[in-house]
Design brief:
Blueprint (H helix, E strand, L loop, with lengths): L1 H10 L13 H30 L21 H19 L1 H4 L5 E5 L4 E4 L2 E2 L6 H24 L4
Antiparallel strand pairs: 1-2, 2-3
Length: 155
């Protein structure tokens, strides 16, 4: 499931740290190792949430990041979405500058000092940080509603 989570995050536009061949190899490999740990933690959290909210049997001994055979496969995709949301939330909390940038200024008017931003205005503009937060919230809501739908709970 770890490879599927990587694919899901790459499909959402996340770029993983790739170890470099030049002088930055140590820093890049450390970043790649930390991302791997964060992926595993997010996936374990999502699997535990899926088990608890859906009342599924325990997957067995040990902490695994693989899909248990006894669980219904229809819950696999929402679990991956939930793990992606957990991973992105952790990245946003720990290093928001890597995922979010200020909006691009598209116009500037000096009389009354108005700025125009790509994707919105100065008051209501959506920068990359709020778009990333919105994506996390969307992934969480859709996964939770899929779990509730599977259990027959009104959301």
């Amino acid at each position: 499931m770890l490879a599927e989570l990587r694919e899901r995050l790459q499909g959402l536009g996340y770029q993983f740290a790739i170890p470099e061949a030049d002088g930055e190899a140590a820093e890049a490999s450390e970043a790649a190792r930390l991302e791997e740990v964060a992926l595993r933690v997010a996936l374990r959290r999502a699997l535990a949430y899926t088990q608890n909210i859906c009342g599924l049997p325990e997957p067995g001994l040990g902490v695994s990041v693989e899909w248990p055979d006894a669980w219904p496969t229809v819950l696999r995709e929402p679990t991956l979405d939930l793990a992606a949301a957990y991973f992105l939330q952790a990245r946003l909390a720990l290093c928001p500058d890597e995922l979010a940038v200020m909006p691009v200024v598209t116009s500037l008017r000096l009389g009354d000092a108005a700025l125009g931003f790509a994707g919105g205005s100065q008051k209501t503009g959506t920068d990359a940080l709020s778009r990333a937060e919105g994506l996390c919230n969307y992934l969480l809501r859709t996964a939770q509603s899929a779990f509730c739908g599977w259990r027959g709970i009104l959301w």
